[in-house]
Amino acid sequence: MLIIDRFEGDCAVIEMGTKTFNLPQEALPKAAKEGDVLEIIIDKEAKEDLKKEIDELVDELFE
Predict the structure, then answer these.
(1) What is the number of alpha carbons within 13 Å of residue 58 lying toward its C-beta?
(2) Which residue, of 6, 15, 39, 55, has the fewest CB within 10 Å?
(3) 3-state DSSP call for residue 25?
(4) What is the CB neighbour count within 10 angstroms for residue 7?
(5) Phi and psi (nearest 5°) for 17?
(6) Residue 4 and residue 32 in contact, taking contact as beta carbons nearer than 8 Å
């Protein structure tokens, strides 16, 4: 479970069990606040879209 502990400057301090780490505040939704629980998802559709975009750019580069 990832919990926003607090904000320090432009970073959010995230608790994960007994560990903490910083995450840029801009990586969080604007409405995020202290105590919110974060969920991480794997977006396979976005991954495929990005792969397609990169493949197209590579094709253009080597034409």
Answers:
(1) 6
(2) 39
(3) helix
(4) 14
(5) 65, -120
(6) yes
Distance, in Å, from the CA atom of 2 to the CA atom of 31, rounded to the nearest integer, reads 16
pLDDT band of residue 63 (cuts 50, 70, 90) is confident
pLDDT tens per residue across span 9-38: 999 999 999 999 999 999 999 999 999 999
Contact 52, 39 (CB under 8 A): no
The amino acid at residue 8 is: E
Residues 24 and 28: their CA atoms lie apart, in Å, by 8
Cβ burial, residue 24 (10 Å; 0-12/13-18/19+): exposed
Strand order in the sheet with 37-38: 19-24, 11-16, 2-8, 37-38
Closest Cα to residue 5, out of 42, 41, 17?
Answer: 17
